[in-house]
Amino acid sequence: MHVTADGLPLGLAISGANRHDSMLLEPLLDAQPAIKGPGRGRPRRRPAKLHADKAYDNRRIRIYLHRRGITARIARRGIEGGERLGRHR
Questions:
Q1: Which residues contact 78 (CB under 8 A, 6 or more apart)?
Q2: What's the confidence (pLDDT) of residue 67?
Q3: What domain count does the chain have?
């Protein structure tokens, strides 16, 4: 599920239990509706930052986020614990 900072759902993807969550990240972000910001101008079509746990730590996702201009805060496998990331999710 894809939610706003205050927990409102923006998108939802359903898949089989044998499919890894990271495979659904790209279609979920691509289907995200426009986000109306506090100022004037065109609504944003992408989030500014993405916070994710270790399951999303792979090169394909980091390249995808960089290409779309999204700042990634993804816990790294074998380096960071999940307890620090939990404060921001």
A1: none
A2: 92
A3: 1
